[in-house]
Amino acid sequence: MASVKETSPPKKASSVKSRRWKRFTHEQIRAKVEQRRDLKCYHTLLMESAVEKDERGIVFDSHHPSWRKLISLVVTQGSENDRRFREELKKRTPDLYTIRQHCRRYGVPPDARGRVWTLLLEEAAVQARVGKPRGDFTKLLPPDDQGLRVIKADVSRTFPYNEMFQRPEVQRELETLLSAYCREYGVQYKQGMNFIFAIFFQLGLPNSRARYHSACLFMETMTGGTFKDSDFGGLQAVFRVFRLLLLYHDPNLCNYLDQYDMVPELYASSWFITLHANRLPVDTLVRLWDALLLDRREDRLLHLFVSLGLLIKRRKGLLNEGVVTLPERLSRLAISSIQEVEELVTEARRKYRPDTPASVRRQLLAIALRPTSVSSPEYQLLESMHCVMVSAEEVVASCYAEKKRRPTSPHTGDGGGAAGAGSPRGAPGTPMARGTAGGDGGGENFGPVKYFVLDCRPEEEYRSGHLACAYHLDPELLFKPEKLNQAARDLASMRGCHFCLCSDRAPPSRNDSPCTMLVLYLLQKGFKFISRLDGGYAACHEAIARQHKSASPSSLRGEGKHGPSPRQGLPGSSRGRGFEMLVDHDPERCVECLRLDAVRAGRRSGRGPGAGVSGTGVGGGGRRLFGMLQARVSDMLFGLAAPASEESSSLEAARGGDTAGG
Length: 662
Known about the structure:
It is found in: Golgi apparatus, trans-Golgi network. This protein is mainly alpha-helical. Helices cover 48% and strands 6% of the residues. It has helices spanning 26-35, 42-48, 65-90, 96-106, 113-127, 146-155, 168-185, 193-199, 208-222, 233-249, 251-259, 269-273, 282-294, 302-313, 315-319, 326-331, 338-352, 358-368, 377-384, 392-400, 459-462, 481-492, 514-524, 536-547, 553-556, 591-605, 620-637, 646-655, and strands at 21-24, 50-54, 57-61, 388-390, 451-455, 470-472, 498-502, 530-533, 559-560, 563-564. A 5-stranded parallel beta sheet has the order 4-8-7-5-6, with helices on both faces. Helix 7 packs across helix 8. It starts with 20 loop residues before the first strand and ends in a 7-residue tail after the last helix.
């Protein structure tokens, strides 16, 4: 930022209300400069009128010639931009990119909001392959329908302090629109629909048919499966998604709410059923919905991140509440003003959404935007997840984005390579992963998240091949609480890292797997950004194999400058092909390579895909360790039985060890 001029305002002028001296925070200034980036001289003129700068912000002199020139330029440019925007809106097929960019930069004009929303909703309907509503008001719910009686009762309670909705003609029209929607789309009326439809009466749309058209498209494209099933399976899925996001970004707050059984159903129902419509004044709500509609379809989780930001913003007050007052405090959580809407939307776009893995966003988006039954396998898997699951492709892309050369072994000095033997930061060749909030991921780009992979496989499997950015967190440490706590303290010093735990092929929903126990241990310690590799090391092994199918022949044979590498397999052999990206990969000992060889051998002999897998002796240490941990998992996590041996006592000590918050 340019240097501030020496001229200073009169004493205490910057601390009192004055029509001349204008104080803005650094964040407000950055936002304004970004908004006016078309004016190349905006920043220069702005700083020429600055007279005082401190950590809170900058004070400007509104009587300065540069400030007056700046105001004149802004007004002139604003008038020209507004003229072009309105000319675009009058076209039969407006350019939605131009409209979207103008509204993102300058906001949606209130008198054009109805037209802008309709255009954006029609675009979303085309992307979602949703047909246009027929709007036949002659086909309504029958008079004896139970849903119609609920509609009549809810219409009279819609925005009771708004004079418009107390008029009989408005109530009759709202009742007609709701009845027509339920009849046309074959859904049962649910409380909350009335608030969503009522908002479209506030947009200046010309008639009932226009209001019905826009409201139906909003229901079909923005509410997902919330109103589509009788058991609210879609809403339950959104609650599970929201808790996973809270656990990822603020595990301490999530653990505190879980401690008192404060599940999202108790405080966030109105956030996700009506998208805050029944909790906010209309002028505040439309600003929030402006942001939701201006986002692309692949970023339609914005309302979840806004709600997440609202909850985390109130965390200090919530953590000070007791079990008696906490439910009431949670039930009264709501966005307080238009300014807070802008702050939460900005934070969601610049912090929470970019800091959430792209593959996780895609998985959660697919769940949140479609009808889901609570008995479906997808919902059961979602309910059993202990943390978010990151795809192998994203982890591999993150590990090797800045590392094109063949990596070196990240084993520690004692040769063990196990956490607790040395600090993770002492692992040569292991890049320090960091999380950034610089931009949006999306599409096939995985975004700015960088991972520090914690490989939780047994040591013999880890030494037969692992990712370059992986550090070995030996599951044997579960029997050594002191070393496990020391490893947690070392990891806690790496603030801002996204930790991804990599295991074998054990299902992520199993409570008795070593990786699951380590996940729960780190979350209990308050570590942020804890995820698990979907499919484990095997998925990474397969992803790297797919990525290198088109590699050069010498690369496929594992040849380097000095000919074939003994660890990459013999020339022409299928074993080890394309796995040069892995560290210390030995196809003679790699579990996945041996498994693939056994599968191929079984297919050639006609004995089936699993023939030849047993009896190889590979991973025996891992199976023995898994059996020992399975016998003690209940003692460690839940304290269901008293320790029966020295090892189980150590596991109990691990539960009550030192705190090493993330």
